Amino acid sequence: MTADTKDLNALVAEASKVLDAAAEPFLQGHRADSAVAKKGDDFATKVDLAIERQVVDALVKNTGIEVHGEEFGGADLDSPWVWVLDPVDGTFNYAAGSPMAAILLGLLHDGDPVAGLTWLPFIGQRYTAVVGGPLLKNGAPQPRLQHTELTDSVIGIGTFNVESRGRFPGRYRLAVLESLSRVSSRLRMHGATGIDLAYVADGILGGAISFGDHVWDHAAGVALVRAAGGIVTNLAGEEWTPQSRSALAAAPGVHAQMLELLRAVGDPGTY
């Protein structure tokens, strides 16, 4: 089987078995303590580390495709085929006992997300999709996303410290939040980027903004949203790639309206 003729559905079926096996230690490790300090105030739990090792070993054995994981790195993202894994999305939620945490697994082919899996073990939701759709929720096909208005939508947005600096300073993020609130009073901070993207794909959220730049937070969800008929770009409106430093995912209609709002807020560097 050559790289261009891989059976994506078969690969997702194998990956689903791997994530099902990982769901057990995920559930058992709820409220796990910090094991590894990371950049800023981020951290990894012992569960993150153990699940990544377990999933990587099983994926390589069962699919023959190498893995790039959040905790240990791995295969190059520019490999012809590579799995991209976040063993615990929403680590702070997970450690605090919140059910809003997930396992994220995306498959990149020459840098393009062609399949995505997002498991929410605490609430029994399993999302899968391959390029071309449909989005599957617990194995059942979901309706394709339709044109939606921002005023009628629930919107997910990333968490932030208003005094933080960086590419998207806290004051800029606050301005985005303020502008969004004038159009939609239904703003949500789930604290888990992958869940936000999966919920956009499922039509629960009309759109979501991620100020982050980690490919493992986005790869699975980008595949899900696109398969469901949604649109994913960076915050400047450029097509999302593994090198993107942000993400804007939304249903048709909402995406255009959110992008217009972001442009009106202005250049993040001026905040």
Automatic annotation (TrEMBL):
Keywords: Magnesium, Metal-binding. CDD domains: IMPase_like. Its EC number is 3.1.3.25. It holds the Pfam family Inositol_P. Mg(2+) binds at residues 70, 86, 89, 217. GO terms for biological process: inositol metabolic process; phosphatidylinositol phosphate biosynthetic process; signal transduction. It catalyses: a myo-inositol phosphate + H2O = myo-inositol + phosphate. Gene3D superfamilies: 3.40.190.80, Fructose-1,6-Bisphosphatase, subunit A, domain 1. Its cofactor is Mg(2+). SUPFAM superfamilies: Carbohydrate phosphatase. GO terms for molecular function: inositol monophosphate 1-phosphatase activity; metal ion binding. This is inositol-phosphate phosphatase.
